[in-house]
Amino acid sequence: MKEESGNIGKSLEAAALIKVVKRQLEDVMDPELPFLSVSDMGILRDVIFENGHTICIITPTYSGCPATDVITKEVLAAARVMDPKSEVRIAMSPAWTTDWISDKAREKMTKNGIAPPEGLSHDRAFLTGDDRIIPCPICKSRDTNLVSPFGSTACKASFSCNKCLEPFEHFKCI
Ligand SMILES: [Zn+2]
After folding, report:
1. Range(s) of the chain covered by CATH 3.30.300.130
2. How far is the CA of 113 from the centre of ligand 1 (A)?
3. Among residues 47, 37, 49, which one has the least CA distance to residue 102?
4. What's the CA-to-centroid distance between 12 and ligand 1, angstroms?
5. Which residue of 13, 102, 106, 146 has the lowest C-beta tally within 10 Å?
6. How far is the centre of ligand 1, averaged over its atoms, from the C-alpha of 166 (Å)?
7. How far, in Å, CA of 109 to CA of 113, rounded?
């Protein structure tokens, strides 16, 4: 791409514009998990082209998540670098689920000391209070305790490991 950013919207075909906007959005991180992009998290659902501009479709992790406003602003700012007329559309249905978190993102969570969501969203045993074993992301021990159902954010729970004695967070399955 050699075009100047001011002319890029006019000179590129819609498909090419979608592509560059998507690439730009790969650098927008989830404010609650700054090592993961909104794309890794499955929050960025798609980029489409309508009425001469791109539309970035995002689904918040859960309604009322305080990070949603920040994500919306950052997605819009990043998209407008490539397409000054880009808009954000929030899609609430289907609701976001941890099933949309990519495998690469789950690996990054583990490396950052957060136990990724276990199983699929239809398995709600954890949310309904049944005991579930969440392996320690540090030493992999399955001998762990739930300390609090809410960690640093509402979507995470606090655990401690009985083997390595380290506290860790678990991203709950929703
Ligand atoms: Zn451990």
Report:
1. 5-90
2. 10
3. 37
4. 51
5. 13
6. 6
7. 6
Place of tokens 């920040």: 70
Predicted model pTM = 0.77
Paired residues of 89 in beta bridges: 57
How many whole angstroms from 133 Cα to the centroid of ligand 1?
A: 13
CA–centroid distance, 103 to ligand 1, in Å, is 22
The answer regarding whether domain 5-90 maps to CATH 3.30.300.20 reads no
Query: Ligand 1: distance of its center to the CA of 30 in Å?
Result: 26
The structure tokens 């082209």 sit at 49
Query: Each residue's pLDDT tens digit in the chain (174 positions)?
Result: 444 554 554 555 899 999 999 999 999 999 888 899 999 999 999 999 999 999 999 998 876 677 888 999 999 999 999 999 999 999 988 889 888 999 999 999 999 999 998 765 655 544 544 456 889 999 999 999 999 988 777 788 999 999 999 999 998 877
Which DSSP letter does residue 149 get? S
